[in-house]
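Researcher: We're reviewing a set of sequences before deciding which ones to prioritize for further study. For each one, I'd like a predicted 3D structure that I can look through quickly. This is Helix-turn-helix domain-containing protein. If possible, include the structure in token form so it fits the rest of the review sheet.
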Amino acid sequence: MASNVNPTVRRRRLGQELRRLRELKGMTAEEVAERLLVSQSKISRLENGRRSISQRDVRDLCGVYDVEDHRIVDSLMQMAKDSRQQGWWHAFGDIPYSVYIGLETDAASLRVYDPQIVPGLLQTPRYAEALITGALPETAAGDVEKRVNVRLRRQERILTAEQPLRLWAVIDEAALRRVVGDRQLMREQLEHLVEQSQLPHVTVQILPFDMGAHPGISGHYAILEFPDAADSSVVYIEGVTSDLYLEKANDVQKYSVMYEHLRAQALNVEASRHFIANIAKEYAR
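Model: Here's the predicted structure for Helix-turn-helix domain-containing protein, in token form for your review sheet.
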């Protein structure tokens, strides 16, 4: 597989194109499912990019939509082939949030709000290990190590010199005060957070307790944006047993407006660095 092929993004682009062809034909997902003798849920999963698409699926759908241009069919068939390849994360085995990793790997920018913990892309290995062990107490040591390694591999997106991910993180004060591991570990984590916040493509803002109620009170979320205009932005909300991906323009807009309010209420960049550094000193006592 070529290194620049991202199967998750290929599935999304292909699904969007198949939806466009269906709508041009004036058909509903239910009507397409009836024609192909499959479930409506399969058509929906193919269109939202949550399911691998076979070249046979593409051929059958192009037949239903009367696509006669062989160049279009060939292009869609190639996208289907690419979408069944494996991304780097598959080498680590079964990762529950593999869809998100695929999106993050190809994203141009990421805006994240975290009310409880330091965001994964800004975590130290020791903090990540202690966090995963505490959050998932029944997880075997080998699986904890695998999750930590995946997290460190993800961090290459903000460490690479070529086209790094533009990261903007608004972090609640609770994440700085919650002792994950021990006080020494927390001091190291907060000092690391200050260092990372000085990267030109990383912005960190802290939302202090005394700001009171705010638009992010309902919990963690992230907004991913992509370099290709054909790829719609995605709001990611992590769940215990399943994750939620919002792609409708209206939903993305609502969360984007919420994020702007969070940024406005949070401390500015310089004040945030001082705030983090002062709490780090408290852990050193």
